[in-house]
């Protein structure tokens, strides 16, 4: 099977930092050009199961994709999570829940250097490609550009109002 210590050494040799985290899924990549959204929510208060919460995070990312003119984006049935376009993963979802409180969340590739994904098997899924908003829209899409539309989509899905978007970013 895979040799976790060997994997860690290999990735560090490429210049990557390596962190072990208590979240769903196996290996993932976080780097520049990714929108990371790690909501801290009480699922009991929201009346959401963990699976429903993952679905809601996916729905927020899908809402963003619709706003950007990418209606073909889809969530896939379990065991898959995240958002996919033409069989390639655009957005990874990995959450942890302890005492009904969520941590971790989603990572959406905006203008991410996708070659990093060549060095890992993202989320343990062999043979699935990775894509980004920049690649799909054929223009440079920054995290700053999509933060506001993502937060709008999040508010829509979770039926909430984020008091100040600036505070929720910074």
TrEMBL record:
Enzyme Commission code: 2.3.1.181
Listed InterPro entries: aa-tRNA-synth_II/BPL/LPL (IPR045864), BPL_LPL_catalytic (IPR004143), Octanoyltransferase (IPR000544), Octanoyltransferase_CS (IPR020605)
Site residues by UniProt (Lowers pKa of active site Cys): 89
Active site residues of this protein: 123 (acyl-thioester intermediate)
Pathway per the UniProt entry: Protein modification; protein lipoylation via endogenous pathway; protein N(6)-(lipoyl)lysine from octanoyl-[acyl-carrier-protein]: step 1/2
Segments passing through the bilayer: none
Superkingdom of the organism of origin: Eukaryota
Cellular component per GO, a single term: mitochondrion
GO molecular function: lipoyl(octanoyl) transferase activity
Keyword Acyltransferase recorded: yes
BPL/LPL catalytic domain span: 1-162
Ligand binding (substrate): 23-30, 92-94, 105-107
GO biological process, any: positive regulation of oxygen metabolic process
Keywords, alphabetical: Acyltransferase, Transferase
Family: Belongs to the LipB family.
Name of the protein described by the UniProt record: lipoyl(octanoyl) transferase
Lineage: Eukaryota, Metazoa, Chordata, Craniata, Vertebrata
């Amino acid at each position: 099977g895979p040799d976790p210590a060997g994997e860690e050494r290999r990735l560090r040799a490429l210049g990557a930092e390596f962190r072990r985290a208590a979240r769903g899924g196996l290996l993932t990549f976080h780097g520049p050009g990714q929108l990371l959204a790690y909501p801290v929510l009480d699922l009991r208060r929201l009346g959401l199961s963990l699976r429903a919460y993952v679905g809601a995070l996916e729905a927020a990312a899908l809402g963003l994709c619709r706003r950007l003119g990418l209606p073909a984006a889809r969530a896939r049935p379990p065991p898959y999570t995240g958002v996919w376009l033409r069989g390639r993963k655009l957005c990874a979802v990995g959450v942890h829940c302890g005492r009904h409180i969520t941590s971790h969340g989603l990572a959406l590739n905006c203008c991410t250097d996708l070659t990093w994904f060549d060095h890992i098997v993202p989320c343990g899924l062999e043979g699935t490609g990775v894509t980004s908003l920049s690649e799909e829209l054929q223009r440079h899409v920054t995290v700053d550009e999509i933060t506001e539309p993502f937060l709008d989509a999040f508010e829509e899905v979770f039926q909430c109002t984020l008091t100040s978007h600036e505070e929720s970013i910074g």
